[in-house]
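Hey team,

Filing this mostly as a record. A colleague (T.K.) asked me to run one chain through the structure pipeline before their review meeting, and I want the input and output archived in the tracker in case anyone asks later how it was produced. No errors, nothing strange. Just documentation.

Input sequence:
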Amino acid sequence: MFCLKNRKTECRGFTLAELLIVVAIIAVLVAVSIPIFNTQLKKASLATCEANRRSLKADLSAIYLNNLNADDVKTEYDLVKDNYTCPDGGIISYKLDEATGVITMSCSKHSDTGELIDIESSLKALGKATGNKAIADFYKNNDNKLPTLSSDQSFWKKLFGDAKLKNDPETLYWRPSSVTVNGKTEYIMYASAEDYPVNESANHSQWKGYACYYNGTYYVSSNKAYGGKNDTGSVATGTTNYSDEDLEKWLEEKGWVAVSTQ
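Output structure:
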């Protein structure tokens, strides 16, 4: 509100147009600021997680160098792991190579060996990419690596328990298989034992995997290899049009079994 002083004081408030302009400016500033804030928040969480992993690694390495005993390292990890946590709720774990004494750390949210590194944002970035292009784009959207499932991490244990996999791969790699659902490109994420781009001519791994993910649900293959080990299941759709319910039914008919990871 402001006043004009002449023979008598006349006070005027802001007009509706002026108020709307101010509100619009504030809305623009908020819209611009939120993504920047979220990005910086993610970077801060990543930096904190990396620092905690380095500290925990130094702790465990000192224990092993002093005792050369893997059991002592496990005991120390169980004692101090709650002191080195991921801000985003990831699970920080370690892997000890007794032959070299090297300890490597991983986080299920952040590290190169994490099980689910930013899959959601990568899926959003794929757009309408299909087939091998989807895998190539997915790979690029994850900083030239694929999200992995490592055998010593708890998420794998939740999927497979103590079951043995065919050829006992130590690492599974998540990648997408595209399918059209109600006219929209959707993706079945599946975990196979072959990395991209180690063999670019077969980077789709014949559209087979040990585990898959669709519409918020994880599935594991019920196929068995010779000797009773878990074998891979197919995620090749063979056709391009499903409803949501039909696609989930199709997965079950292909031998995929839904599992809970909670």
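Quick notes for T.K.: Residues 119-259 form one domain. The radius of gyration is 26 Å.
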